[in-house]
Amino acid sequence: MEFQTITLERRGRVAVITINRPEKLNALNTQVHTEAIAALDELRDDAEVGCVVITGAGEKAFVAGADISEFAGKTAVTQRAVFQERTLFNSVDQFPKPVIAMINGFALGGGCELALACDIRVASENAKFSQPEINLGIMCGGGGTQRLTRLIGEGRAMEMCLTGDMIDAATAERFGLVNHVWPAEELEEKTMDLAEKIASKAPVALQMTKEAVKFASRSNLDEGLRREIDLFAICFSTEDKEEGVSAFLEKRKPEFKGQ
Ligand code: COA
Q: Which tens digit of pLDDT belongs to each residue from 175-233?
């Protein structure tokens, strides 16, 4: 597929998806959703890709939300139908490989929700976060009330969603909304280091680990522990498990094959 609103780049075992509408602060319109989902489909089946980074083009924004111009004229019925289709948020959430949000500026509304759907969030010092839907007379619809609450707790999520106020990167780090805050000029290099480290691990073990960690906030402890054992056992059926153990015993670096 030819992309017009995103770019897709492979750097070794890391793929970078860049939402590329800087003149609209990378707002998510229908075309961005379609193209980014198509890019993820392509990357899912690419054995050479171990980790995906999602970011926004330009220096100002990661993503400034859903494209508000598309809300005009939408009815309850048509909007519900849009979100009942396969959404970008759920496609990222359910993507079998780790996804890192590299947040280089505004992450507002659907932009914050896109970051929340990713597995790890890292930000530059100038990043800003909010769920401003309330200011438009609506509410979060891309998972904000659910994923934000699970990540930072009910009181903090409630305040963000009820006020629409922006928080800065330092506050986001204190809340646990992002894992790291780095100077803007170091963001890309440090994010790529993190992504490459993850991408170098055994692919099946990465997939099982992502599934197990995500299951923790979607189940009770007993169910979670049972699921973890099942996924752990699957790792024992892989050649990469033999390779990882042998490499440790032979004091060498493992060479994982994704099998
Ligand atoms: N949807 C559609 N267009 C958007 C947008 C969005 N979510 N966010 C920004 N844009 C557009 C602006 O309309 C403007 O387009 P124009 O140049 O054709 O007029 C362009 O991006 C630049 O934005 P601008 O508002 O001029 O930049 P700013 O620095 O003055 O303000 C923000 C930046 C992020 C504070 C402001 O753009 C904003 O509040 N955006 C909406 C955020 C939002 O409510 N998101 C949630 C949607 S549910």
A: 999 999 999 999 999 999 999 999 999 999 999 999 999 999 999 999 999 999 999 99
- Rounded to an integer, what distance in angstroms lies between the CA atom of residue 131 and that of residue 179? 19
Length, in residues, of the chain: 259
> By 3-state DSSP, what share of the chain in percent is helix, strand and coil, each rounded to 5?
50, 15, 30
Where b means 16+ CB within 10 Å and e means fewer, 58-78 reads beebbbbbbbeeeeeeeeeee
d(CA 53, CA 15): 6
Catalytic residue among 2, 113, 189, 196: 113
Q: How far is the CA of 90 from the centre of ligand 1 (A)?
A: 24
Residues with Cβ < 8 Å from 232, sequence gap 6 or more?
A: 208, 212
